[in-house]
Amino acid sequence: MPAHKKRIIHNFISLSLVQGLSILFPLISFPYLLRVLGVEGFGLFSMLQTVLMYFDLLVSFGFGLTATQQVARNLNNPERTRQIISSVFSIKALLFGASLLVFLIGGLTIPALKGHLSLVLLSTLYLAGNLLFPDWYFQGIQKMKNITFVAFLSKSIGLFLLVLLVRSRDDLGYAVLALSAGNFMAGLIGFLIMLKSVRLTWSLPKKSFLFLLFRDSAYVFMSIILAPLYLSVNIFILSAFTNPLVVGYYAIAEKIYSAIGMLTSIANRTFYPHLSQLYHQSKDQFRNYVRRISRLFWIGFALISVIQLLGAEWLVLLAGGRKQGADMGLAADMLRVMSIGVLFSPFVSFFFQLLIIQGQKKMAIRNCAITVLANLATSITLTHFFGGMGMAVNLCITTIVIAALNYFTYRNLFLRAN
Q1: How far apart are CA 319 and CA 8, in angstroms?
Q2: How confident is the model over 93-134, as pLDDT tens digits?
Q3: Virtual CA dihedral for 402, 404, 409, 411, nearest 10 degrees?
Q4: What are the tens digits of pLDDT across the range 391-400?
Q5: Which residue ranges make up each domain of the chain?
Q6: Which helix (DSSP H) or strand (DSSP E) does residue 79 occupy?
Q7: How far is Cα 157 from Cα 152, in angstroms, rounded to an integer?
Q8: Can you say whether residue 110 is alpha, beta or left, with left for phi > 0 and alpha for psi between -120 and 50 degrees?
């Protein structure tokens, strides 16, 4: 087997393990925290965690695509790689500083956070871990096993500290410390691993490259923000036209649909660095490789779609519990409809990433914006006439629309350039 194929398989396994850890850790820690901290304490912990995730997204700023692409292109150019690393950390440091300021102001002014400034300060340690962790670098050099190692270490440290320190309702601060310390230690260790693999001599990045990287990452960041927007909007629209019961059934089906979609994310993150490198080496090889991946996606997700269609009732009962009664059949019907969307789901992010590789960030965000606006119109219409089933159909339509937009944009640009 060729070396690059072995590397891709190893990277896919590594990223799958990371995703598995991300699912497993909350399943273990959340019930424990709920039992020890109580509902009120767990609610405050969850709120802080949710706020952290938004700031975490800001500090990451789309570098998972832009910086990964830059590193993958310049594997044999150490000087350029050092410039990329310096530039990314410079931008992330500025974003971290801005996030820290906003977070602290929120801790002093937002009613729900007033009186919990110590928790807010502890939470910033989590963001510092994101600042340090160079996952984009490991993806660029296609060594995802480092990400797996650091993720496992982070979860293990966090879980160990939770069990060791959180023993009563008064230990909310320790719970936040455990979450933050685990992520910070992971970020620090990941940073040290990167330093070991590249001799980094810190220098002031060139302004032109710094601006270019910031601009490109800003486009990707906006696309990442827009992409999940229609999902949250759909829940709101559904609640306006139906009742909480239908919303609950739809939410169960949509969560299962999203969980299956994690496979898409893992696969695309695996192929992305190699495709970025290949695009600048040989356009013909790049095009052939894209075709092979597309065929693989069609076959693989057709199988997954059939499994979801035939096993919808079992999946819903597994996710929602058997005690919910026969009405769970509505959620199963919605999930069956969504199986159509599953078939097209890998191509949404796949062709989005190909647009990033082609340097077409504006076109990528344009497609996202068009889809969000189209979704707004179709979701209101279909939900008004068909309720929850209409929203399930709308989810499929939205997935197909953005996949088609990204595909035809990629195809036209590639044909025009070649």
Answers
A1: 31
A2: 999 999 999 888 887 887 767 777 888 888 889 999 999 999
A3: 150
A4: 999 999 999 9
A5: 3-214, 227-417
A6: helix 78-109
A7: 9
A8: beta
